[in-house]
Amino acid sequence: ARAADRDGRAEELVSLAEMLPIAGIELELPARTRNGVITEMITLAGKTDLLWDAVAVGGAVRERENLHSTALECGVALLHPRRPMPNAIAQPFVCLGRTRNGIPFGSPRLTELFFLICSTDDAGHLHLLARISRLLATDSFLALLRTAIDAHTLHDEIAAQEQALTAEGKA
Description:
Elements: E1 2-4, E2 10-12, H1 16-19, E3 25-29, H2 34-46, H3 54-67, E4 76-79, E5 93-103, E6 111-118, H4 122-136, H5 139-147, H6 151-167
Helix pairs in contact: 2-3
């Protein structure tokens, strides 16, 4: 789908569901520390077969987190390298991890939900961040992320929430 931006230019709408492979969802992330989360999320990304250079991406994510935490006050962190890494990934994708108990990650609230955003260009990265931010602004989306019982159900529900957002014209 396409939408017009503020200047009237057409831009491609990004779909979180399309960029989130089932293999990239882990609802029982075993990590208990900030560094452990990053390690587990990179391991999860490796299961998608879309990550070519786990060492480079992991290092870039750690460097970005050391610069400034991506944790939000709603208990979600948006892990990503500071710059897109087209030579380290096959295509843009997202992974999603959930810990049983939240962990200190740089926000006043414990963080229990982690998105790993891997992009090949700045524009795609920004569009994906905007899409995730819009979804996170709805209480039902956060509740869905916290209560989903399996990856397939969660993925289907994310797609449904995105369609509802698009239908309301908030995409």
